Amino acid sequence: MKLLEDRIRQDGKIRSGGVLKVDSFLNHQIDVKLYGEIGKEFHRLFGDCGVTKILTIEASGIGIACVAAQFFDVPVIFAKKNKTKNIAGDVYTSKVESFTHGKVYDIIVAKEFLLPEDRVLIIDDFLANGSALQGLINLVKDAGATVVGAGICIEKAFQPGGDLIRSMGVRVESLAKIKSMTEDSIEFC
Ligand code: 5GP
Predict the structure, then answer these.
(1) Which positions in this protein are listed as binding xanthine (predicted)?
(2) Looking at ligand 1, which atom is closest to the CA of residue 27?
């Protein structure tokens, strides 16, 4: 998606350790019009897949998922990052290793919101090593529901997540795929 690639070139900030900051338009200050274009593009890609729910993870995925959901006319569920040690039996749970913070945490979704008949589109802002996406896929599988695919805003294709998830047979559509980046240059696939 050229609009997103151009915006990343213009306003993205590349940090050491392969981290791209997009705080000025995607996940801190938000360009809502850009979210609208992203949502429209996800709908163009997945609109004919019979999606019944969109699943994302707090916090940065929520806004993008909500705007996209308006095009699909389906509810959004966001997996919560669980802070307590006791996990009640009425939730599905999975482990995620944070790329940006390096910690492992549990994510949870209430069983009442993910049903076996659901066809779920997963949406997230970044795909790096694939841990967040894998955790979300596990929640959907635990519920006996179907993963229709994953819509990702920015895939860092120089990290293994994209290949890993695609090799599991999951359709992954990334709107901007970064082939390589250094502190002063960025190349898209
Ligand atoms: P993964 O689990 O694929 O390694 O990482 C995905 C998650 O880590 C995303 O939900 C995103 O919040 C965060 N993330 C990964 N790489 C970056 C990055 O370069 N910049 C930012 N801002 N977040 C990232």
Answers:
(1) 20, 27, 156
(2) 22
> Ligand 1 in contact with 64 (CB < 6 A)?
no
Summarize pLDDT for 111-135 with one digit per residue, the tens.
Answer: 999 999 999 999 999 999 999 999 9
pTM of the model: 0.95
Ligand 1 centroid to residue 88 C-alpha, Å? 28
Candidates 3.40.50.1100, 2.40.110.10, 3.40.50.2020, 3.30.450.20; CATH matching 2-188: 3.40.50.2020
Q: Is 94's C-beta closer than 6 angstroms to any atom of ligand 1?
A: no
* Token pair in block for residue 149: 């695919």
pLDDT for 27-83, tens place per residue? 999 999 999 999 999 999 999 999 999 999 999 999 999 999 999 999 999 999 986
Ligand 1 touching residue 99 (CB < 6 A): yes
Boundaries of every domain in the chain: 2-188
ipTM over the 0.85 cut-off? yes
